[in-house]
Amino acid sequence: xxxxxxxxxxxxxxxxxxxxxxxxxxxxxxxxxxxxxxxxxxxxxxxxxxxxxxxxxxxxxxxxxxxxxxxxxxxxxxxxxxxxxxxxxxxxxxxxxxxxxxxxxxxxxxxxxxxxxxxxxxxxxxxxxxxxxxxxxxxxxxxxxxxxxxxxxxxxxxxxxxxxxxxxxxxxxxxxxxxxxxxxxxxxxxxxxxxxxxxxxxxxxxxxxxxxxxxxxxxxxxxxxxxxxxxxxxxxxxxxxxxxxxxxxxxxxxxxxxxxxxxxxxxxxxxxxxxxxxxxxxxxxxxxxxxxxxxxxxxxxxxxxxxxxxxxxxxxxxxxxxxxxxxxxxxxxxx
Length: 335
Hints:
alpha/beta, eight-stranded mixed β-sheet, 42% helix, 16% strand, disordered N terminus
């Protein structure tokens, strides 16, 4: 079955928070001018008649208009999550220029201008609605994903970031990222396809190598690439949706709420260990994941947990299957 990116974005929003945690109120839409010099048109989706518990920043790519994010934003708001969709490309189109890859690699000053604008938007939304900055989770696609990735790497987005269509596709990108990564960066989930028609896939930038770039600087990143996947990963929607759904569920439970209070620790599996602890027990090469050669269990078990089929088991993949198992058990208990 083929999935368009916006479908799994919307699906993510629908299940990112537990259905029982928030009221299913209608979303209320506000349009404001925010950011530096209050110059960026920003659409904010708020729960109608309910206090939002979390906030999410949604960024589109350079070839999209802001409406791409409206459907998932509405779904977030209906479940108690404040959703913020800035038209950052509309304001900065002249600075971005027509050739986004040149912009991304060679215009660090202009990049910082856009990032400063996005940070100002987050600060203003936080002040208006009573959120600390660290309550924001972010999700970005293509150029929007590259901004989310870099801001999270610099700890400017603290509660978690999901990046798609913004692969690290060469040593130039790797060098730049090494120079900006903060040792206390937020958890980042990076998703990409090997047949991305806009960003040339570089085999030297495998998920393991990408994770190593961040890990060496103390950052927490999990990368997944999908063989044959295009820029939008539309043929891998089910696997992508599972990984994103689990990531959102976990980060919502761990991130600070409106008062800045801390929440739950990492998810604990059926054996009483977190996924990270399980991996550490058998991770012979220290790459933060389990290869088939390191796994002592049956092959069918390995295949079951290998959600993206890349031959490695990651924290997110273990937690994805645990979430699915918990949901099945909860459903069975209600029968």
